[in-house]
Each structure stands twice: as structure tokens, then as C-alpha cells.
């Protein structure tokens, strides 16, 4: 018979091996724990008390902040977005949550759901985006709104339509109250947005009168904050990007035209208050603090501290010269008014943009795609180099 020798480990070696194995198991457990997604805290609602809420355009700038608010309140949220200007990164922290559902859907096509409330925000909102495809903009705001009103009628849901201060056009009354009918060029470059929003308001009232649909209409004035598109084309994002990239700030016209800027958190509070209330006519949601474009450029430049020049460019066609909301109705009916000052809000927005630019810069070096934003923003020098090297990039 042949004997196979058996080697036994000493006590010290056995303990040492066990320690190694325990550490390996700890590492595996830690990896598993880290791989499980941690969601922001939400309130608990019994199933029968939860509202089923649809947010169209919920992956966009305003929509994603509204989704955050509604999710934290414990409701069941469905987002419908075709990602023309919205991004999944804006709502990725909710993906997989049992109260959250994301639909890649263009509302120009009908949508069949069972919901209690609809926040209808779907539409490109900045001039470069809505003028890029004016026919699509018109269809989104007309056909898309008819589809949402039809859904609200079928399931007896309440619908809030996100209208715009652009319905006032280049106003002849200042500030603009809700009873002002506006001064809009129906065939100008902005007409695709301005007029389609005006038609959508008319459709909301037609459905309310004829089909008894519960409607709410928010006329939203200039809004800014984190999650704005880097290439948004609006004045706040333009000035912040130019300042952060040490470029001259560009003003279109002489810089005397005025706007009123509200921070995104204030707008979300206003939208929720409007949906919760009983008022069915249009309500202005905006900050009545008025600034000229020249003043805004100086505030942002001084806050970031690059000291570059402010350069004048030719005036944009149909660019309103004055824009300031009369928020008497919002104050008295909704008990709402903006709380965040311009400097507080701009600082938060600057911090966000700086972080996004750093992410894009780092990802360009590694050849990876930034998931924090749809587009890369290239400086003129970077764009020239990219063209010379025949790189592919999106503007």
C-alpha cells in the first residue's frame, strides 16, 4: 500500500489563513453593498393615498427638479421625455426606485396611462432649441398638448400646462399682468414658440369649458439654476460659460433690455402650489426683481472674477426689450413669491457649471462620454483644434 502524506498547518498559519479569507469575504460584501443603489429619502404614503403623477419633459431642466420634489413627497411618478433637450443624468438618481417610471416617449404621439395629475412641461424652451426645428416645436405645443388634454379627459386627471412669459411678446405694458393680451409677431423667428404656447392655452380653456377638464396654467418667466443645458443659449448660461472659460461676455443689442430671473427652486414651489390650488386662469410665476442684460453680465463677471470685457453684438430679431412679471395673483391666490436672491442662485449655478465643465474636460482626455450632460461645450480654440484633428464632436 502506498501512503499519501498529509501535512497539517500549525495554529499560527491556520489563524493567518482564516484572517485572509475573512478579509476577502469582507471585501466582497463591501462591493455588493456599494453596488446597491441608494435613493434620496422619500416620505411614506399608504398606496391608496399616493398620487399617480405624469411629468412630461421630466428629464429636462425644470422637469427634473419638479420630479425631485414630487418623489420626495412620496408620490408615484411617471416621466415621459423624448430627450431632445432633457438628459437621463438629470433623473438617474431615481431610476430603479419603485415609485418611479421613465418612458422614452414623444408626446406628439398619444400616451395611455392611469394618472391623477399631469404636469405638462414637454417643450424646448430656449431660443436656439425651439428655433432649431420650428415645425417640431409647434407640433409639440399643439398636438402634444391635445394628447395630454385628451388623456386628462379620459382618466379625469388634473392638468397643469407650463406656458411662458413669451405669450406677452415684446410687451407694451410693464410689468406684465395676466390680463394683458400681449404683443407678439405671428410670423417672426420666435413665433413657433410664442404662438404655439398661446394656442395651447386656448386649447386648455376649450377642454375646460367643453369637456370639464381641470386645468392650471403657469406663465413661467426666465428661470435658471443647476441642470441647465451647457449649450442652452440663454443669457445666464452664456454669461457663466464665457466667464468660466475666460472669454469676453457677449451682449446682443446695447444691453439695456431687461429680464427678471427666478431660481429653479422658487419655480418648483410655485408649480406645486398652483396644482394644489383651485385657481383655473393663467398665473405668472417669476421673480419681479428686474435687471438689464448689462447689469447681469457685470454681476456674473465680477462673481467669477475673470475681469474680461463685455462685447456688444447686433440685436436679435424680436428680442423683447422689457420683461417683468406682475405676481399679484400668485402672492394673493397661491401665497407664493420667490425667496432666492439673484446672487445666491447665480452662485449655485456657477458651482454646477464649473463642475460640469471639469467633468467634460477630464472625459475628453480619456475619450469617454460625459453622462452629466448631452453636449460638450468647446471654446473657440478647442473647436479649431478639434477640426484640425478631424475629431467628431457635438455642438
Percent range of helical residues? 40-55%
Bin the strand percentage: 5-15%
Q: How would you sum up the major sheet?
A: 7 strands, parallel
Kindly provide the radius of gyration, computed on alpha-carbon positions and rounded to a whole number of angstroms. Answer: 26 Å
What secondary-structure arrangement, pairings included, does this model have?
Layout: H1 11-35, E1 52-56, H2 61-72, E2 76-81, E3 100-104, E4 117-120, H3 127-132, H4 134-155, E5 158-164, H5 191-211, E6 215-220, E7 223-224, H6 235-244, E8 249-252, E9 258-260, E10 262-263, H7 264-276, E11 283-285, E12 290-292, H8 293-304, E13 310-313, H9 328-333, H10 342-366, H11 380-388
Parallel strand pairs: 1-2, 1-4, 2-3, 4-5, 5-6, 6-11, 7-10, 8-13
Antiparallel strand pairs: 9-12
Helix pairs in contact: 2-7, 4-5, 6-8, 6-10, 8-10
GO biological process, one term: UDP-D-xylose biosynthetic process
Pfam families: GDP_Man_Dehyd (PF16363)
GO molecular function, one term: NAD+ binding
Provide the descriptors you would attach to this structure in a database record.
globular, 395 residues, Rossmann fold, 7-stranded parallel sheet, 14% strand, alpha/beta
In short:
The protein is an alpha/beta fold.
Written account of the structure:
Helix 2 packs across helix 7, helix 6 runs parallel beside helix 8 and helix 8 packs across helix 10. With 395 residues, this protein is an alpha/beta fold. The protein has 11 helices and 13 strands. The C terminus is likely disordered. It is globular, with a radius of gyration of 26 Å. The strands form 4 sheets. The protein has a 7-stranded parallel beta sheet, with helices on both faces. Strands 7-10 form a two-stranded parallel sheet. A two-stranded parallel sheet has the order 8-13. It has a domain of 220 residues: NAD(P)-binding Rossmann-like Domain (Rossmann fold, 3-Layer(aba) Sandwich), CATH 3.40.50.
Amino acid at each position: 500500500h502506498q501512503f499519501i502524506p498529509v501535512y497539517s498547518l500549525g495554529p499560527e498559519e491556520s489563524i493567518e489563513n482564516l484572517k485572509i479569507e475573512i478579509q476577502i469575504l469582507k471585501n466582497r460584501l463591501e462591493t455588493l453593498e456599494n453596488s446597491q443603489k441608494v435613493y434620496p429619502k422619500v416620505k411614506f404614503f399608504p398606496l391608496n393615498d399616493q398620487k399617480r403623477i405624469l411629468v412630461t419633459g421630466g428629464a429636462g431642466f425644470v422637469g427634473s427638479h419638479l420630479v425631485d420634489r414630487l418623489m420626495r413627497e412620496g408620490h408615484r411618478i411617471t416621466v415621459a421625455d423624448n430627450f431632445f433637450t432633457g438628459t437621463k443624468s438629470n433623473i438617474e438618481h431615481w431610476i430603479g426606485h419603485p415609485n418611479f417610471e421613465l418612458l422614452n416617449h414623444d408626446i406628439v404621439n398619444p400616451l395611455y396611462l392611469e394618472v391623477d395629475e399631469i404636469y405638462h412641461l414637454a417643450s424646448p424652451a430656449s431660443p436656439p432649441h425651439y428655433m432649431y426645428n420650428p415645425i417640431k416645436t409647434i407640433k409639440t405645443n399643439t398636438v402634444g398638448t391635445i394628447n395630454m388634454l385628451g388623456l386628462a379627459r379620459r382618466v379625469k386627471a388634473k392638468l397643469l400646462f407650463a406656458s411662458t412669459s413669451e405669450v406677452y411678446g415684446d410687451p407694451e405694458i410693464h410689468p406684465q399682468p395676466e390680463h394683458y393680451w400681449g404683443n407678439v409677431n405671428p410670423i417672426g423667428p420666435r413665433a413657433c414658440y410664442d404662438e404655439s404656447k398661446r394656442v395651447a392655452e386656448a386649447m386648455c380653456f376649450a377642454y375646460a369649458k367643453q369637456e370639464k377638464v381641470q386645468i392650471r396654467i403657469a406663465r413661467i418667466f426666465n428661470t435658471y439654476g443647476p441642470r441647465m443645458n451647457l449649450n442652452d443659449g440663454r443669457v445666464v448660461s452664456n454669461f457663466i460659460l464665457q466667464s468660466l472659460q475666460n472669454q469676453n461676455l457677449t451682449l446682443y443689442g446695447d444691453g439695456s433690455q431687461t429680464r427678471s430671473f427666478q431660481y429653479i427652486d422658487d419655480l418648483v414651489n410655485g408649480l406645486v402650489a398652483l396644482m394644489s390650488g383651485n385657481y383655473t386662469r393663467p398665473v405668472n410665476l417669476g421673480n419681479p426683481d428686474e435687471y438689464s442684460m448689462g447689469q447681469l453680465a457685470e454681476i456674473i463677471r465680477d462673481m467669477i472674477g475673470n475681469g474680461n470685457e463685455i462685447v456688444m453684438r447686433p440685436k436679435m430679431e424680436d428680442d423683447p426689450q422689457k420683461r417683468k412679471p406682475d405676481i399679484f395673483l400668485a402672492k394673493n391666490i397661491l401665497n407664493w413669491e420667490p425667496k432666492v436672491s439673484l446672487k445666491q442662485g447665480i452662485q449655485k449655478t456657477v458651482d454646477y457649471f464649473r463642475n460640469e465643465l471639469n467633468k467634460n474636460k477630464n472625459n475628453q482626455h480619456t475619450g469617454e462620454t460625459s453622462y452629466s450632460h448631452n453636449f460638450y461645450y468647446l471654446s473657440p480654440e478647442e473647436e479649431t483644434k478639434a477640426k484640425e484633428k478631424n475629431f467628431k464632436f457635438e455642438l
